[in-house]
Each structure stands twice: as C-alpha cells, then as structure tokens.
C-alpha cells in the first residue's frame, strides 16, 4: 500500500522561523503534489507597485472590464512567469484543475477571458511559483516548516493578502500568538 498522501488542494502556511525570509508568513495554494515534487502559488504577498492593469499593459492586452487589483508574489521560481489561480468554474488551454477546490492557468487565454468578463468568477494573478523537488516538501513538513490546512474561496480570493496567514491559521483553530519558532526536545 502506498503511504503517500497528496496535499494538492490544501493551503500551506509557513511556520514561524521557517529559515527562508522569502517564505516568512507565506500562504501557498498547493496545486500539485505527488511523489516527484510539488508546485504551489503564493497568495500571501503582493508585488509592490504592480496591478493587473499594469500587467495587461506590459503584455499589450486591453484590460477591458477586468478590475485593477494587486498582482501576487507567486513564489521565487520563474518570477517573470504569470499564473492565474482561479475558481474551478472556468477552464481553458492547459488549465490544471485541483480537484473541485480551484484551478490554475498560465496561458493568456484566461487573461483575455477575464478582460471580456467571461473568465472565472474568482481569480488572482501571480508572478512566479513555489516548487519542491522529489520528497522535499514532505521533508520540510516533517521539520515543522509548513502547516497544511483547508482553504475556502473567500479566504483565497477575497481576504486581504496581509491577513491571509493569520486568518488561515485561525480557520484551522490555531492562535498564531501561541506559535513559536523554537522546537523542543522530549
């Protein structure tokens, strides 16, 4: 029997003292997790000074009816590459469906659909992604680097980025004031 349990469709929350400042209070929507590795999109921080209309302009796309909202720091891997994390009610070229939780699309068709008002009902745009090689995420979780929890659409798509980490922990029944970056020994 295979003991591997996929965490795709969960939110990963960085524990205090994770040891990498790029992931301090990180909230990552995990989109793929299997024996060969994991991929997720950061939704806890926005790119300073960049909004969707600015991104549309850089891509020579008319923003149409798309709202001008912040763009997220999706992660340190390929920070020049764009991703749209969105509700599972829309699908396009190369859309990755993460169960019935959410979807991820990295092709321009989703941005064009959003501009026309025909895209997903809820979405956010991120640059870059977080990636882990074979067994890396599982090992980091065993060292108390990450906490996995279920997210909901309101938390993912409407909660203020700065509040997501604390709210996601609260939704799992964890008071962040009681978290420590020091581990004990038994």
How would you briefly describe this protein structure?
The protein has helices spanning 52-58, 108-116, 136-142, 153-157, 161-171, and strands spanning 11-14, 27-34, 37-42, 46-51, 70-73, 77-86, 96-98, 102-105, 123-132, 146-149. It is α+β, with helices and mostly antiparallel strands.
Q: What fraction, in percent, of the residue positions are helical?
A: 10-25%
Summed over residues and divided by their number, the pLDDT gives a mean of 93
Strand content: 25-35%
What's the end-to-end separation, in Å? 31 Å
CA-based shape: globular
- Spell out the helices and strands N to C: EEEEHEEEEHEHEHH
Q: Count up the helices.
A: 5
The gyration radius over C-alpha positions equals 17 Å
**Quantity of strands, as a count:** 10
Query: Can you tell me the CATH class?
Result: Alpha Beta
Number of domains: 1
Low-confidence stretches: none
Structural class category: alpha+beta
User: What do we call the CATH topology?
Assistant: VC0467-like
CATH superfamily: VC0467-like
CATH architecture: 3-Layer(aba) Sandwich
Q: Give a quick account of the main beta sheet: strands, pairing sense, barrel closure.
A: 10 strands, mixed
Explained architecture:
The chain is an alpha+beta fold and 186 residues long. It has a single domain, classed as 3-Layer(aba) Sandwich (VC0467-like). The chain is built from five helices and ten strands. It has helices at 52-58, 108-116, 136-142, 153-157, 161-171, and strands spanning 11-14, 27-34, 37-42, 46-51, 70-73, 77-86, 96-98, 102-105, 123-132, 146-149. Strands 1, 2, 3, 4, 5, 6, 7, 8, 9 and 10 form a ten-stranded mixed sheet that branches. A hairpin with a 3-residue loop joins strand 7 (96-98) and strand 8. The two termini are 31 Å apart. 36% of the residues are buried.
């Amino acid at each position: 029997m295979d003991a591997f349990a996929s965490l795709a469709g969960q939110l990963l929350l960085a524990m205090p003292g994770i040891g990498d400042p790029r992931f301090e209070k990180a909230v990552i929507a995990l989109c793929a997790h299997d024996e060969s590795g994991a991929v997720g999109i950061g939704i806890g921080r926005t790119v300073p000074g960049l909004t969707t209309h600015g991104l549309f302009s850089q891509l020579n796309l008319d923003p149409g009816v798309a709202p001008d909202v912040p763009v997220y720091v999706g992660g340190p891997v390929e920070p020049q590459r764009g991703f749209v994390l969105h509700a599972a009610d829309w699908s396009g070229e190369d859309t990755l469906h993460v169960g019935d939780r959410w979807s991820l699309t990295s092709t321009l068709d989703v941005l064009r659909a959003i501009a026309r008002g025909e895209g997903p009902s809820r979405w956010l745009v991120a640059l870059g992604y977080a990636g882990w090689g074979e067994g890396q995420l599982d090992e980091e979780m065993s060292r108390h680097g990450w906490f996995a929890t279920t997210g909901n659409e309101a938390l993912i798509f409407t909660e203020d980025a700065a509040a997501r980490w604390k709210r996601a922990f609260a939704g799992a029944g964890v008071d962040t004031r009681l978290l420590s970056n020091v581990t004990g020994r038994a």
